[in-house]
Amino acid sequence: MLYLIGLGLGDATDITVKGLEIVRRCSRVYLEAYTSMLTVGKGALEEFYGRELLLADRDMVEQEADGILKDADVSDVAFLVVGDPFGATTHSDLVLRAVTAGIEYRVVHNASIMSAVGCCGLQLYNFGETVSIVFWTDTWKPESFYDKIKRNRDMGMHTLCLLDIKVKEQSTENLMRGRKIFEPARYMSAAQAAGQLLEIVQNRREKGEELAVTEDTVCVGLARVGAEDQAIRAGTLRELASCDLGGPLHSVIVTGHLHPLEVDMLRLFTSGPSGLQSLRTMDGSTCVS
Amino acid sequence: MLYLIGLGLGDATDITVKGLEIVRRCSRVYLEAYTSMLTVGKGALEEFYGRELLLADRDMVEQEADGILKDADVSDVAFLVVGDPFGATTHSDLVLRAVTAGIEYRVVHNASIMSAVGCCGLQLYNFGETVSIVFWTDTWKPESFYDKIKRNRDMGMHTLCLLDIKVKEQSTENLMRGRKIFEPARYMSAAQAAGQLLEIVQNRREKGEELAVTEDTVCVGLARVGAEDQAIRAGTLRELASCDLGGPLHSVIVTGHLHPLEVDMLRLFTSGPSGLQSLRTMDGSTCVS
């Protein structure tokens, strides 16, 4: 049996009791380590689970999946995924390979950032399409996520923005020379995402477009959701661009139409009395009905 | 401290290790018992957690919240919620009351149906607004959810439909006479939801509307997601209307534009070779690009 087991979002203790029991009896346990991260590392997980974990990076999952699935028809293999195995990233490829090879699989669900963001008080019912925001480079500054946010906002919907993660990236030179030397991991912060969004707003303004998002649009930055030291900050897009929420992972929500109860909840996460006020008055298009 | 603890979606063992530790040391533990359910009852949870649970029905949470929060400023109280505490249902009211009373709170996240539906292989990124489908009566047959599904499909997005739950409902007569006699709990099945949707499709056809959904639109029925005996069925809306997925809870997804990898995954959940075929050919508007 292949078990795909979600680890949730905080630390080692966020695994479910069911998941932990399975981890402890599997013959091999892989840890998917390239699409997300917990606040603790592999060592802490190994100590808590009482099991050695085999790190599965992107190359391994995409190119050596047969190794992961080896003997899974006659023994139990676990594949651990931060969050939920079918949350922000899906592992359909691995499942399909397993089924094709005649291997049964089972999913042990857990919290995903896709639903845990509800903790800021915005109702999941009121979210439209989720978008990803990638790191811009000097020569590549895609704006397509803005248009999706605009489409959601036009319908009054909130937008969850998942932020870029760069793990095991090679510099162009190292890539060309075939050197397996990797750059330090990079995780986009809420402030960086807000900064890119502000730049797009300015671009669109200069083009004379009607703006769906402005510097005063109410946004929410979330960091380390589910961990002891999680941080949530509600404020304008401009405020978010200069706020420091600490270590990764971060997410951003661009709000749409706000329900009064949602406003009451967001007030818990503003930075001061002026911030509380701004939620009502600063952005006409998102104020309370 | 007030702890809002998600129980996940399957049985007693789907609580997280962190959640279980907190449950075992709180002075009082409430179980929210009106917006969802696990495959096991209160007794099984009490046995596994090793704690007595106080049932919190809708009346209690809405009218006697102060009782739940009593002494939570000086001791620890847990409020258990099936799924995630901020998933399909939010408990913002209770949180706001706690904060107003000077009580700290913390959330222990878990799997929510809002993200666990990803297990059918449809990518959560490609979902639009979530809708609720309520039980129709002889005199009240709201169709507004159809228009939201239409709006999602027009943009190529999938729609998660959460299905009605009737717990502790009174008959009109008992309500008028003030008798606290409750009807048996009712949970809408995927087939019932599909049946109501088919009726709307027929209504709209008779009005000459251009149809966003037809009898051949690819849908997915999901039952008891996360439980050992979960059932997932992919097929046309017509097929779904006559399929029996067993006991509650059920959900339905009306698909939008399908990515090839999503089709490959849905094929795992069709009822036979003809079903496999139907995913490609029967509904022009949702076939693979």
UniProtKB/TrEMBL annotation, chains A, B:
Span of domain Tetrapyrrole methylase: 1-240
Protein encoded by which gene: DPH5
Designated name of the protein: diphthine methyl ester synthase
Function noted in UniProt: S-adenosyl-L-methionine-dependent methyltransferase that catalyzes four methylations of the modified target histidine residue in translation elongation factor 2 (EF-2), to form an intermediate called diphthine methyl ester. The four successive methylation reactions represent the second step of diphthamide biosynthesis.
Organism listed in the record: Denticeps clupeoides (denticle herring)
UniProt catalytic activity: 2-[(3S)-amino-3-carboxypropyl]-L-histidyl-[translation elongation factor 2] + 4 S-adenosyl-L-methionine = diphthine methyl ester-[translation elongation factor 2] + 4 S-adenosyl-L-homocysteine + 3 H(+)
Top EC group: transferase
Pathway: Protein modification; peptidyl-diphthamide biosynthesis
Keywords on record: Methyltransferase, S-adenosyl-L-methionine, Transferase
